[in-house]
Amino acid sequence: MSWFKRTEKGITTPTSEKKDTPDGLWYKTPSGKIILTKDLKANHYVCPDDSYHVKIGSKEYFEILFDENEFTELDADMVSEDMLKFVDSKPYNKRLEATQLKTSLKDAIRTAYGKMNESPLVVACMDFEFIGGSMGSVVGEKIARAIDHARLTRTPILIISRSGGARMMESSFSLMQMAKTSAKLALLSEEKVPYISLLTDPTTGGVTASFAMIGDFNIAEPQALIGFAGPRVIRETIGKDLPKDFQTAEFVQEHGFLDFIVDRRKLKSTLTSLLKMLK
Amino acid sequence: MILDFEKPIVELETKLAELKQLLYQGSKIDVSETVSLLEKKIQTLKKDTYKNLTRWQKVQLARHPERPYTLDYLEKMTTDFIELHGDRTVGDDKAMVGGFATIDDQTFMIIGQQKGRNTKQRQYRNFGMPNPEGYRKALRLMKMAEKFGKPIVTLIDTPGAFPGIEAEERGQGEAIARNIKEMFMLKVPVICIIIGEGASGGALGIAIGDRVLMLENTWYSVISPESCSSILWRSWDYKEQAADALKLTANDMLSLNLIDGIIEEPLGGAHKDADAMVEKLKEVILKTFKELEEIPAEIRISQRIDKFSAMGRVKE
User: Fold this and answer.
1) Are residues A162 and A240 in the same domain?
2) Where are the beta strands (DSSP E) in chain A?
3) Does residue A49 sit in the same domain as residue A87?
4) Domain assignment present for A10
5) Is B68 within 8 Å of B195 (Cβ atoms)?
6) CB–CB of B314 and A81 under 8 A?
7) Looking at the structure, do residues A42 and A87 belong to the same domain, yes or no?
């Protein structure tokens, strides 16, 4: 017999009501710096000692960007339909349910509109913790509708990417989201509404090969991994070690594919200045 | 090359050839009845085999080394093909070919990935895996076709865009993304045909069209069955399950409304009768072009955008 017994069975607190990410009182960066999570949050989830950008999701980015964290979410209840009845190590619909429960998210993206320093802005922000930020029908459709919203209201749009690429469990439906999002961006372009693409750590695969790389402005966070093929695939294909700093934001900027790299602490002010000049 | 599931057919064909040999040699035993019986049996077996292929078997046919490639179609289907090289920036990608060509007095811009037939050619063509400059060459040629008001046909046959260091340095993702976006706005008719393998972004980079068609024994999906197996099952051994799960055949893609039509192949695959395949493709291209030509450009563009925008399944 155990010394004490839990009276309530099962813990049902959703992640959103638990402690803020990152969990715990302290946070340790990869270089070993330790910071109070409270201070980390106040510092836009950037470690003041080594400028390490902690990986965050839509909740945190909305907090950082929208004035007083006020925004209207678009298509908040949209979920994926397991059209193909895809089964790998477990059925896709079970995987979806489990992930929704674990993360309190509906899918790998949230879209919203609100004000950034008093100017209207549409933001679509990916959540990596939802099946690796993979792009399936929901991600594609929500981005498409957010772009439509931006076009029809003539509001600048910011898409924050953080994704491993396509969601294999949606197979070709997933592939065609690359086409759908790019089609909507082509229409947005015609209307001359600004589109800023922010690439964060990591952005690869079908996301890089569609909406993430064709912003009017392609910008990134420091040290973010950005590429089409993942480093492992490239290493296996060519059978050689990869150069140091390969596929970092700095590398990608050096090769001409990013307009600039922005420290998260200056993200809001930089975007505000940039968009002001386009008015 | 004989695929595993074709072996029973080949065995019967070998037996038939032996019997015919006996006939010619004037054998005293009358084998003519056996010969005609065997011929019938082979026909039935062929039909049974090729009409009931599994998804993985279709993938094997799509990769058959004797299948006609882009340049074979260009050579046999068109007159006056003039190949146009280079992306005007970095170089000329041998895995992507294209140029103006004539089919029955109509000029087309025809662009496609190109694979090689032997080891040397395969290396030269980088196994049909374009680098960014291949996609940029394709876009340059498409823009030129638009400028001169000529319709575009793309022939898709790639195991994927090349995953290499230089490809990343030169922006593989950007090149594919730009092509996808720009292809939506092309004012001329665009017909895209999967003639072999349609692997992911590397295929999609030249596959945004008013009509997207697949040859009967080809595959088109977000990932190859092997890579899917290695990622989701963490082993290369589940490629057949992966092929089934991905629903990557022409039939699958049509029933999911992700393509516009299927082009029938000769029995046993395009390579079994390349001339017939070429004729068929030519017929389909001309017919499809005639339909598209009638539609005003702005309507064609908005239909193209609407079609791809409707792809995906969500619940609200």
Assistant:
1) yes
2) 26-28, 34-36, 71-74, 79-80, 109-116, 119-126, 157-163, 195-203, 217-220, 260-261
3) no
4) no
5) yes
6) yes
7) no
Is the Cβ of B223 closer than 8 Å to some Cβ of chain A?
Answer: yes
In chain A, residues with a C-beta closer than 8 Å to the C-beta of B161 are: 209, 228-229
What pTM does this model have? 0.93
Q: What's at B95, amino acid-wise? A: A
Measured between CA atoms, the residue of chain B closest to residue A251 is B169
Nearest CA in chain A to B184: A183
Question: Domain of A95?
Answer: 55-278
Is the CB of B311 less than 8 angstroms away from the CB of A176? yes
Count up the domains in chain A and report the number: 2
Task: Indicate whether A146 and A260 sit together in one domain.
Answer: yes
Residues 6+ apart with CB under 8 A from A40: A22, A27, A46, A47, A54
Kindly give the confidence (pLDDT) of every residue in chain A, 279 residues in length, as a single tens digit, with 9 standing for 90 and above: 556 666 666 656 665 555 445 567 889 999 999 999 899 999 999 999 999 999 999 999 999 999 999 999 999 999 998 889 998 888 999 999 999 999 999 999 999 999 999 999 999 999 999 999 999 999 999 999 999 999 999 999 999 999 999 999 999 999 999 999 999 999 999 999 999 999 999 999 999 999 999 999 999 999 999 999 999 889 988 888 999 899 999 999 999 999 999 999 999 999 999 999 999
Answer whether residue A8 is part of any domain: no
User: Which of A172, A168, A177 minimizes the C-alpha distance to A88?
Assistant: A168
Distance in Å, alpha carbon of A188 to nearest chain B alpha carbon: 11
| A106 plus A23 within the same structural domain | no
Question: Which of B170, B174, B182 is opposite residue A213, by nearest beta carbon?
Answer: B174
Q: Is B127 left (phi over 0), alpha (psi -120 to 50) or beta?
A: left
Residues of chain A positioned with their CB less than 8 A from the CB of B176: 209-210, 228
Are A119 and A46 within one domain?
no
